[in-house]
Amino acid sequence: MFSVPLAEGAELRPLEPWQAGEFLAHMDRARAVVDPWIPWAGRSTDLETTRLTLQRYADLQARDAGRLFGIWLDGTLVGGTMFVSFDAEGGVAEVGVWLEPAAQGRGLITAAVRVLIDWAFRVRGLHRIEWHCRTDNVASSNVARRLGMRLDGVLRESYLYRDVRHDTQIWSILATD
């Protein structure tokens, strides 16, 4: 199985539909802190909806339009990273992340996204990687900074969550940076 070490006891691996049970258990632990930032967290509430979430990313990967990876810590799925979108022809992708509280503060997200960015630039030849986050998601914008991304701007009231519109920061890093 494909696996990339991230830190002591931590690894990055593909997250696929056959892992729906493990993903659901993880979402049950993480949903409260992930749902405000990632739309599918609140929709992945049973095996069927969880499998659909994972299948959506499997379908994106089959079209070379996105990918989903899990982060395991000591054998337990604790978070992940993804290409929310992936446009090889246009040379642009968006990365996203999530992590349950028990695994926070270990640098796992930063390490995992570095793997994706490196692969996208070096192997796939992309030019630009974007990071989108709500302006009130300080932890997320801090990761973007640690990755060397620049804040390109803010999309006003572009993200709807529970009938409230939120501003979204757009960060980026270029292959030439």
Summarize the structure in words:
- The protein has a single domain, classed as Aminopeptidase (3-Layer(aba) Sandwich).
- The chain has 4 helices and 8 strands; from the N terminus they run ββααβββαβαββ.
- A hairpin with a 2-residue loop joins strand 7 and strand 8.
- The chain is globular and about 40 Å long.
- The relative contact order is 0.14.
- The mean pLDDT is 93.
- This is N-acetyltransferase.
- It comes from Dactylosporangium sucinum.
- Pfam families: Acetyltransf_3.
CATH superfamily: Gcn5-related N-acetyltransferase (GNAT)
* C-alpha termini separation: 32 Å
What is the 3D shape? globular
Q: What's the CATH C level?
A: Alpha Beta
Give me the Rg, rounded. 15 Å
- The CATH architecture would be 3-Layer(aba) Sandwich
Number of domains: 1
CATH topology: Aminopeptidase
SS field, number of helical segments: 4
List low-pLDDT spans.
Answer: none
Profile the largest sheet.
8 strands, mixed
Number of beta strands:
8
How do the strands line up in the largest sheet?
1-2-3-4-5-6-8-7
Strand content: 35-45%
Considering DSSP H and I runs of 4 or more, what fraction of the residues is helical? Answer: 25-40%
Give the averaged pLDDT, no decimals: 93
What structural class do the secondary elements suggest?
alpha+beta
Element order: H for helix, E for strand: EEHHEEEHEHEE
Protein name: N-acetyltransferase
GO cellular component, one term: cytoplasm
Domain N-acetyltransferase: 10-176
GO molecular function: protein N-terminal-serine acetyltransferase activity; protein-N-terminal-alanine acetyltransferase activity
